[in-house]
Amino acid sequence: MSRxxxxxxxxxxxxxxxxxxxELLRHLSQKTEVDGEAKDMAARLVLCLRGIxxxxxxxxxxWENRDYWVKAEQLRQRWVWAGNSAARLEQLVRDESWDSLxxxxxxxxxxxxxxxxxxxxRPASEWQGAYQQxxxxxx
Length: 139
Fold this sequence. Notes:
Elements: H1 10-29, H2 36-65, H3 69-78, H4 80-95, H5 101-111, H6 130-137
Helix pairs in contact: 1-2, 2-3, 2-4, 2-6
């Protein structure tokens, strides 16, 4: 039997989610008003940030299983912003307090500064329906 290679490692998925989030932030920054598409983008951003946070926890558990406790904790501390931002953005979306969105986006831009978005590659279908999906989670 041959070895099974997981091509969707937590690091690869995290990089994809980071790229998607960077593109969403760029799209959102170009919006002049909060319409249905902007709500979908914000909701998809929540889901991306949650995915990043989940991936960090998965990576940290791998380090812990190898008895690298300090490295696991450092990883969690370096990425704690993802889970916190996801929770804050989700609350903003659920409360529909869209006036707070630019301030939160400004904070998020600092975490995505190293990702250069020269070409937008994510289609609109990436975020369509995300707002309703996020709202349906509560029920």
